[in-house]
Amino acid sequence: MTRNINLFFILLQASFIHATTAIPKVVIAIHGGTADHEEISPLLEKEILDGLATSLKAGYQILKNKGGSLAAVEAAVKVLENNPLFNAGKGAVFTEEGKNEMDASIMEGRTKKAGAVASTTIIKNPISAARAVMEKTRHVLLVGNGADQFAKDNGLEIVDPKYFYTERRWKEWQKSKQKKNQNKQSGLPTPWNRHFSLGTTGAVALDPLGNLAAATSTGGLTNKMHGRVGDSPLIGAGTYADNETAAISCTGVGEYFIRFGVAHEITALMKYKGYDVAKASDTLIQETLKPLKVEGAAIVLDAKGNLAFSYFAEGLPRGYVTDDGVLHLLIFEKETTQSLR
Question: Span 246-252, mean pLDDT?
Fold first, then answer.
């Protein structure tokens, strides 16, 4: 049994190896969480790519009209929150109690102002609530009922919790519960569930004034404990932006991203060691988390428009637009492009 497990991890690790290279002149980039080949049918792949394209177009349109990077990342993430394919907003996973609880954060790189919400249950677009926290309060993070009430008081769109239900996520929750019960009966610890945990959304952008911004939104982990909060709403763990270095959005098992302060650590490597976006992101994802078998990713965009996607997974639904208006989309290694001009 031990030999089979070790062989599995050897094969897994080999299949996830990739080389990160910086992509220049990018103005906006997004991710939709990690992905496995066996879960992505040709039809689902097309639907995911279409969803990513719609998100990028929403963010790019703002930048094209000389809008700010903060508005661009908010717009891009809102599209993903409204798309049931992703683990954010409408497509959020279910908690241990069979509920949908969302987390989100946003940050801009010029002043390093940031806002976040966690464990929300009725806010249609948590990323907009995160921005409202940043702009309308002296705080950074509001949680639970406090976040929901703040959103109501500030005129954000409120929905019935049933709005977030999707059959796909419900079935994933049932399978996850069954697996957890089997492990409990066998006296085994509950492992991180690769297939039912991920799908976090995020965006990074660089506007015409040279300002960076980052945003991340998620439904968290399937079957997570009551009160659990991951890295996505925590500034410095799952989200960070600094005009001197980069804008970053992460996805993966949040507990590890919190413990290693992944988003901020990437900027620290850039600032104090002079690493570029590719080397800095790979240092955390490939050299720090990968040896721990932690599936995850970081998208990193610097103030010159250099972009890196670093991930330990079979695939990462992602896309970006360069300053010439060309949109690039991919999940695994096959890329599609289209011009937005």
Answer: 97
